[in-house]
């Protein structure tokens, strides 16, 4: 019986076209993912080469003045891209994955954006998460909206009802073969992904796969529930598409608009102005005052006294430091606003399966806002480390050729945060159970 | 009036039938609520965006003028900001705005990136899109039209009433036009109030003092959306008329909607981005740096290019060292350096923008097959939230930056003594009143003719669509069968 039902399902022209379409676009999404991966890798390679050349050239030019040299040279920090990121690119196309900074004021450099074509950003990537989130549900709806209604409308339902001992079991079987074929397709695409994108099969991948399966089941549960209402095909199609529209477009977009309007970030602009003034005004202020502030921040450098000359690198870097120190409040505020944005959206997302799936997939792939905020924090640490290393050298005017420039390689930040199974799976699981429960009850009536 | 009598009768009848279904009230109410939400959040967003950008633009201007006497080169590094301001139509069409950087720091020697885009501060939720009036008009209303119109003809065919109607002296053309009018009259119940609210908000935002340019943009915005929606009414009726059953009509229409509004826009842009790969920021910057070094490095005393300049200056002024020149030599060299580096930067930027345009060319070309993309591009253009407007903003900012840097260099050449102060001397300064020669940055959005010029593909394709639909109605009227 099951085999016959399966043959009947797979032989239909619509089914074949639908599955083939999804397979092809799934494969295309992997190619796009691979291009993304290569581009990231290229960027890192280029950054490493550039840093080496750039340091060597500048060290040769400014061999007498280490303070001047460090005015110019940039050090890069890379936000590590996992292979699995190629499946859910998320915000990685918007945010730069490499920060290149000099040891001057960080606040003026930290938010430098990536070079981007805004048209690409607006339309978004066709990564695997898009295929899963948008297109799988459409096929699921197309496969199941007319599960009973079609037979009722064509008059074959009565035959089924009289010939099959348990019509409910029959309906379950119809769903079973559809679920099996789509999960089969999902697994197949992800299997190709494992080889094509060299994704290791670790906890992250299992989480990713688990969420994908649960998400597909969620849409089947929705269809199961709607079918259980036993309306006609047109009604089912309209209602299912409306649900799709709500979950994929209207609710996420509405919530996003709400969050953006609720947590506005004028701090960003204020931060840049404050930072600029805090640094520049020091040129026209008493030097000793600036230095006193600097000593307060770094008591370990107290023994470096202000030289008598009009210009000194000690004073210069103290001024730069003040740009950061005096805009620290705004910087903190901006950071906490962004954290609030992220937390609020994650909290709301628990109640909207599509949003939850998207946010979780990006969290696993380390391509979400959380990862970006961690990367910015790490940039702070990276920058501070460089400062502490070079400040005494500059103040002593250490010889440029005595420094081991070649040891300053591009560094990499690994986001170690882990996603828990419960947090990832529970919301989807609950939705599935509730929908199936209600559908079951409707059928039993 | 007599002429359209039958059509109007059919339309009225259809409208009454639609409103017999209670679901339409719920949907209408819901879309109405959504439109209100979109209008208010758009308004809120626009106001806060412009208030902040105006506030900080103003503040940074005051800061600039407040600077005490100093060396003009210090001022060139103090720099200015270009904050992006939105146009009033962007309340209704956000376009690419969330992905635009909102502030560019403008200083000497260096072209900074436009930073602080909304997207950089959002999580991936943003990628689902945003709710704006334009989104409701362009994405949701067409679907509503399809839901209302899928059984406009097919249902009458299934019922057998089609035969009766056609045998009573109504011809296909009248029948189709009647149905189109019927659907249109349902949609207009949403569209007309929306437009009225839209115009009111728009007037209010500009305190009722509107410019001709803005008015034309607004009229075009409304007009094109009207044509766009009519297009979907016609498609709904044509598909319904050529489908055997209403179910088939519904499925085909849903398919058309999905392809036009969801699948094609993403795919075409993705194809463009896949085929034409743009360089990374690191590559872009290091290429520029290399080219500048090739041209000449002003830091290197033995550089050929700068040595030639030096020698010719010495010859013309008949002196033996640059210190004896009658003007500030390093100011002169910086002017030359700025000119060279910004020429090179602009050349590289041009190349980069060419790649971007190639990426976008697919989407632009697809306007001919996809009226959604044509409409989207046009409405983004009219509200100055499209790609070209953004590039225009960046270009205006760069022109301002170059001008500022060179004016500061000119001040240095003219007023700063050519004799370098000793290590313990006070630095050379000029009076602070000079700072006012730099005007405040003011972004001028593209005027309507420029917009239409850059979105000409969209305009032409919409015109072609109108013609095509009339032709299709004609063909359909001839060939359709009642059974």
TrEMBL record, chain A:
The chain crosses the membrane at residues 15-33, 128-148, 175-197, 204-229, 235-255, 421-440. It holds the Pfam family DUF3526. InterPro entries: DUF3526 (IPR021913). Keywords: Membrane, Transmembrane, Transmembrane helix. The keyword Electron transport does not apply. This is ABC transporter permease.
Automatic annotation (TrEMBL), chain B:
Keywords: Membrane, Transmembrane, Transmembrane helix. The keyword Glycoprotein does not apply. The keyword Mitochondrion does not apply. GO terms for molecular function: ABC-type transporter activity. The chain crosses the membrane at residues 21-43, 131-155, 176-204, 216-239, 251-276, 456-477. One of its GO terms (cellular component) is membrane. Its main location: membrane. It is found in: Membrane. It comes from the Bacteria. Residues 135-263 form the ABC-2 type transporter transmembrane domain. It is a multi-pass membrane protein. This is ABC-2 type transporter transmembrane domain-containing protein. It comes from Flavobacterium panici.
């Amino acid at each position: 019986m099951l085999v016959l039902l399966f043959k009947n399902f797979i032989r239909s022209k619509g089914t074949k076209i639908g599955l083939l379409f999804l397979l092809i676009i799934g494969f295309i999404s992997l190619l796009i993912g691979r291009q993304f991966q290569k581009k990231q890798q290229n960027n890192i390679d280029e950054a490493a080469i550039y840093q080496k050349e750039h340091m060597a050239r500048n060290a040769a030019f400014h061999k007498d003045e280490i303070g001047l040299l460090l005015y110019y040279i940039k050090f890069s920090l890379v936000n590590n891209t996992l292979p699995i990121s190629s499946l859910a690119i998320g915000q990685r196309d918007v945010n730069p994955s490499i920060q290149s900074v000099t040891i001057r004021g960080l606040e003026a450099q930290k938010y430098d954006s990536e070079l981007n074509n805004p048209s690409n950003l607006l339309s978004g990537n066709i990564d695997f998460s898009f295929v899963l989130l948008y297109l799988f549900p459409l096929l699921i709806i197309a496969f199941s909206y007319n599960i009973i209604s079609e037979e009722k409308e064509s008059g074959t339902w009565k035959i089924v009802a009289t010939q099959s001992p348990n019509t409910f079991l029959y309906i379950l079987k119809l769903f079973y073969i559809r679920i099996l074929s789509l999960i089969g397709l999902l697994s197949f695409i992800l299997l190709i992904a494992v080889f094509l994108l060299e994704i290791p099969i670790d906890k992250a991948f299992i989480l990713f796969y688990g969420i994908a399966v649960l998400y597909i089941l969620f849409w089947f549960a929705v269809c199961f529930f709607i079918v259980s209402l036993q309306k006609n095909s047109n009604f089912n199609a309209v209602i299912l598409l409306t649900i799709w529209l709500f979950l994929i477009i209207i609710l996420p977009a509405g919530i996003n608009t709400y969050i953006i309007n609720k947590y506005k970030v004028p701090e960003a602009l204020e931060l840049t102005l404050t930072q600029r003034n805090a640094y520049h005004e020091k040129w026209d202020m008493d030097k000793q005052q600036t230095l006193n502030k600097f000593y307060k921040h770094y008591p370990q450098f107290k023994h470096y006294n202000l030289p008598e000359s009009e210009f000194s690198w000690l004073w210069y870097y103290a001024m730069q430091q003040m740009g950061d120190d005096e805009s620290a409040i705004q910087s903190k505020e901006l950071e906490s606003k962004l954290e609030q944005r992220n937390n609020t959206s994650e909290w709301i997302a628990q109640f909207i399966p599509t949003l939850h799936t998207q946010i979780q997939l990006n969290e696993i792939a380390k391509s979400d806002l959380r990862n970006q905020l961690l990367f910015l924090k790490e940039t702070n640490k990276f920058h501070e480390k460089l400062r502490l290393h070079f400040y005494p050298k500059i103040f002593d005017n250490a010889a440029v050729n005595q420094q081991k420039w070649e040891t300053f390689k591009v560094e990499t930040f690994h986001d170690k945060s882990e996603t828990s199974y419960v947090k990832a799976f529970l919301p989807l699981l609950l939705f599935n159970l509730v929908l199936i429960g209600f559908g079951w009850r409707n059928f039993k009536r | 009036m007599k002429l359209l009598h039958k059509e109007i009768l059919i339309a009225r009848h259809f409208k009454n039938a639609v409103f017999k279904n209670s679901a339409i009230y719920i949907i209408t109410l819901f879309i109405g609520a959504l439109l209100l939400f979109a209008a208010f959040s758009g308004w809120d967003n626009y106001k806060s965006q412009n208030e902040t950008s105006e506030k900080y633009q103003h503040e940074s201007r005051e800061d600039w003028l407040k600077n005490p006497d100093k060396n003009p080169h210090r001022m060139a590094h103090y720099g200015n900001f270009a904050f992006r301001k939105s146009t009033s139509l962007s309340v209704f069409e956000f376009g690419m705005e969330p992905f635009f950087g909102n502030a560019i720091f403008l200083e000497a020697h260096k072209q900074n990136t436009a930073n602080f885009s909304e997207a950089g501060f959002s999580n991936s939720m943003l990628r689902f899109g945003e709710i704006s009036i334009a989104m409701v008009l362009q994405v949701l209303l067409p679907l509503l039209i399809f839901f209302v119109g899928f059984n406009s003809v097919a249902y009458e065919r299934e019922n057998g009433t089609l035969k009766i109607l056609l045998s009573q002296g109504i011809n296909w053309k009248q029948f189709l036009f009647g149905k189109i009018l019927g659907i249109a009259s349902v949609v207009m119940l949403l569209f007309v109030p929306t437009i009225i609210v839209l115009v009111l908000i728009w007037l209010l935002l500009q305190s009722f003092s509107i410019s001709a340019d803005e008015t034309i943009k607004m009229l075009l915005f409304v007009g094109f959306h009207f044509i766009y929606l009519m297009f979907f009414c016609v498609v709904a009726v044509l598909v319904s008329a050529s489908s055997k059953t209403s179910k088939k009509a519904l499925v085909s229409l849903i398919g058309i909607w999905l392809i036009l509004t969801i699948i094609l826009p993403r795919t075409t842009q993705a194809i463009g981005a896949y085929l034409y790969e743009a360089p990374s920021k690191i590559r872009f910057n290091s290429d520029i740096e290399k080219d500048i070094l090739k041209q000449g490095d002003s830091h290197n005393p033995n550089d050929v290019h700068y040595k030639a300049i030096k020698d010719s200056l010495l010859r013309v002024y008949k002196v033996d060292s640059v210190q004896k020149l009658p003007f500030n030599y390093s100011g002169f060299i910086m002017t030359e350096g700025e000119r060279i580096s910004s020429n090179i930067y602009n050349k590289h930027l041009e190349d980069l923008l060419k790649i971007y345009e190639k990426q976008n060319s697919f989407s632009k070309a697809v306007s001919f097959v996809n009226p959604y993309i044509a409409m989207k591009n046009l409405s983004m253009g009219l509200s100055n939230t499209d790609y070209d407007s953004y590039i225009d903003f960046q270009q205006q900012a760069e022109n301002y930056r170059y001008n500022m840097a060179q004016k500061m260099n000119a001040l240095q050449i003219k007023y700063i003594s050519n004799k370098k102060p000793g290590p313990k001397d006070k630095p050379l300064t000029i009076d602070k009143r000079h700072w006012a020669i730099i005007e405040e940055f003011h972004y001028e959005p593209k005027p309507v003719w420029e917009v239409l010029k850059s979105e000409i593909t969209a305009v032409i394709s919409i015109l072609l669509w109108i013609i095509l639909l009339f032709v299709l109605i004609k063909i359909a009227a001839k060939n359709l069968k009642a059974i």
